[in-house]
Amino acid sequence: MKRNIVFEIYFNPKKYLSLLTCIEHVNNILKIQQQYLYKEQDWYLCSTSKKKSSIYKGFDKDGVTEIGLKKMTQEYHKDKRHFCLAIWDKKTEEAALVYSIYEQTCGQPFKVKIRLDYDILLSEIDLNNIQKFCLALSEQFDGAYIMVNNNYTPEKTVFPDRLSAAWMIYLPKVQLSHNMVPQAFDVISPTDHEGHAAGSLVITLPHFFDEKNTDDIKAVNSVDIKLRELGLLPLYADF
CA–CA separation, 80 vs 235, rounded Å? Predict the structure, then answer.
C-alpha cells in the first residue's frame, strides 16, 4: 500500500531571491532526497496539462538542464513579485516539488514555501531516514520551519491558522528537550558547528502519521497545544 507523504518548508528570506539561488535550493533538495528518500533523478517542468508537463526536463543527475534553465528564466522574469517552479517525476508520477517565492506588501516582505509530495510504499517509509531528511533540509534553509505530513483537513486541527506538528515539525533556532514536550514521541535538538542550538525536530508518533486515524489526530493535537503554550507554533500569516 502506498501512502502520501508531504513535506512543507517555510522561511522568510531577507530579500527576493535570485533565480540561481532558487535553482540551487531545488537542486540541493533533489540531491538530499536521493540519499534518504526518493531515488529518481529526472524531473520535468510542470505545465497546464499532463502532456505539456512531459516535454521539458528541468533537472537530471547533473542538476538543472539547459532547456530547464531557459524555461525557468523566462518564467522568473514574467513577474518579479512572484515566482513558482514546479517539477514532477513523470516516469512514476509519484513525486512532485513546488517552489514558490513571493514579495509581499505588508508583514514579512518576502516569503518562500516549498512543498514536496511523494507516494511511497508504507513499508519503505523509514522513521530514521525521514528524520535525517528533515535535518538535512534544515541545514539548507536558515530559519526554516519544516512540517511532515501536514495534509489532513483544517477542521481536525486545534489551530487551523497555525503550523502544525503533524507527524514531525522542525522548529528553527530553539533547543527543546523531550521533557519540555512530553506529549511527543521524541525530540531531536542538533547543534551547529559552534555548539549553538540549530533547532529542534519534534516527532509526534513512532509510526507514519495517518490523518484518518483518530488516535493519531489526538496525538498531533496534544503536541500542537503544548507547542502553542511554549509560543513555538507560528501563524501561517507570519510567512
Answer: 25
Check: CB of residue 6 under 8 Å from CB of residue 122: no
DSSP, collapsed to helix, strand or coil, labels residue 28 as: helix
Contacts of 131 (CB under 8 A, 6+ apart): 168, 188, 201, 203
Contact 161, 236 (CB under 8 A): yes
Tell me the three state secondary structure of residue 4: strand
Give one DSSP letter per residue of 146-184, joined into a string. EEES--S-GGGSS-TTB---SSEEEEET----TTT-TTS
Q: Give the span between the Cα atoms of 48 and 113, in whole angstroms.
A: 21
* Residue 165 in grid coordinates: 506538528
At 63, the amino acid letter reads G
The long-range contacts involving 35-40, CB below 8 angstroms and separated by at least 24 positions, are 35/136, 36/129, 36/130, 36/132, 36/133, 36/136, 37/118, 37/120, 37/129, 37/130, 37/133, 38/89, 38/95, 38/118, 38/120, 40/89, 40/91, 40/92, 40/95
Give pLDDT tens digits for 139-192. Answer: 999 899 999 987 666 667 899 999 999 999 999 989 999 999 999 999 999 877
d(CA 185, CA 201) in angstroms, rounded, equals 11
Residue-wise pLDDT tens digits, 170-180: 999 899 999 99
